[in-house]
Design brief:
mainly alpha, 6 helices
């Protein structure tokens, strides 16, 4: 038989479980300026399967943890060959002036990542369409459709 934990004593409050601490989770509208990219770019990265990891607990939208956004930013800096000190300097400089808008480095880095992702997906689609054309070219249906004899 299953043993349940004892009930909380009088005056003690039972524990509460939260899904995420609200201060550490951002919506897409908040995450895009945090990264320094446009909301459309973040949506495209998510659509292709790139970008920072996101969570979709309901149908309303996607949420991003700040730790994941910082890790994604660090990964882009590492891919560009920049050091962790340069990343820290970039972050402090960006926070010091309360800069809003797009960050040029992040726009370039995410553009490159998005181009690679779209090339990969486009290549897979082209291969699939090519295989479909090969299969259909050797079927009797294609002879009927294209009046081949």
């Amino acid at each position: 038989m299953k043993q349940f934990p004892p009930r909380a004593e009088q005056g003690e409050k039972p524990g509460v479980v939260f899904r995420f601490p609200r201060a550490h989770v951002l919506t897409r509208q908040q995450a895009a300026p945090y990264l320094g990219i446009s909301e459309k770019r973040l949506r495209l990265l998510d659509f292709v399967g790139l970008g920072p990891p996101s969570v979709q607990p309901d149908k309303k939208g996607r949420y991003y943890r700040k730790e994941d956004l910082d890790q994604y930013c660090a990964t882009l800096f590492a891919k560009a060959g920049l050091s962790a000190q340069e990343l820290q300097r970039h972050r402090t400089q960006r926070n010091a002036v309360t800069y809003t808008g797009t960050d040029r480095f992040m726009e370039l880095a995410t553009r490159q990542e998005l181009a690679q992702g779209c090339a990969y997906v486009g290549g897979r689609i082209a291969i699939g369409l090519g295989l479909l054309a090969i299969v259909l070219s050797h079927t009797p249906l294609s002879r009927v459709l294209f009046h081949m004899q």
